[in-house]
Amino acid sequence: MILELCILFFLVALAYSAAGFGGGSSYLAILALWSVDFQLMKSTALLCNVAVVIGGVYHFYKSGHLPMKKAWQLSLISVPLAFAGSYLPLKQATFFLLLGIALTLAAVVMCYRLFFEREEEADPVRKGSGLVYGVIGGAIGLLSGMTGIGGGIYLSPVLRLGKYDTAKNIAGLSSFFILVNSIAGLLGQAAKHAIVFDMSFAGPLLIAVIAGGQIGARLSAKVLKPRWVAGATAVLILYAGVRMLVK
């Protein structure tokens, strides 16, 4: 089982990191389909998120595609809410209900990005309200903490629709957002002594996502074609999400 999971996690990290994402929604979907304990799922997905996006944040910052002022505006409210969401005592049934809804929404968002979002950056960047986007980021952070999803997959299309910045800068902002919220989520779990780390299980997965994330962060979209992977990933996430809701 662990070898199959390592291969899948490597491919997810490879595809997602090139777009500035951590892959938390896909990690959770895969672990859910493998019937992994829900606390171990949550901790492992957040750890893998951190392992993937920390390299992406460095890559985007070094290349000048991470405007730090906007990054902190988006994260100022989300970080404490991600901590609070992770600290909330959730029963297993409630967790899987929330996760099923979150994964289903994530699949819908991915389908929107795949079929309707333009790749061009011809439209000018708008001067939107930092407070409004901060509040949106806060809501996503709360969901992130409760479910173990980094939140970038929800934040990115909102920023793209609002023309908050260029596509490359939005990828950098999403990467930073995932990193700080995943760390906040882990701290929330640690604060209530609910963080679960099985080295024999999570260790190989972390190695797989670090390798995939480092390769993906250095590949351009023209080389990797992440949209090709997005379709298959959306189907996987949708299947896992609907399956949880039905159960």
Automatic annotation (TrEMBL):
Q: Which domain of life is it from?
A: Bacteria
Its membrane topology is listed as: Multi-pass membrane protein
Keywords attached to this Swiss-Prot or TrEMBL record, sorted alphabetically, are: Cell membrane, Membrane, Transmembrane, Transmembrane helix
The chain's coiled-coil residues are none
Q: What family does this belong to? A: Belongs to the 4-toluene sulfonate uptake permease (TSUP) (TC 2.A.102) family.
- PANTHER family per UniProt: MEMBRANE TRANSPORTER PROTEIN MJ0441-RELATED (PTHR43701), MEMBRANE TRANSPORTER PROTEIN-RELATED (PTHR43701:SF5)
State the name under which the record lists this protein: Probable membrane transporter protein
Which species? Chitinophaga niastensis
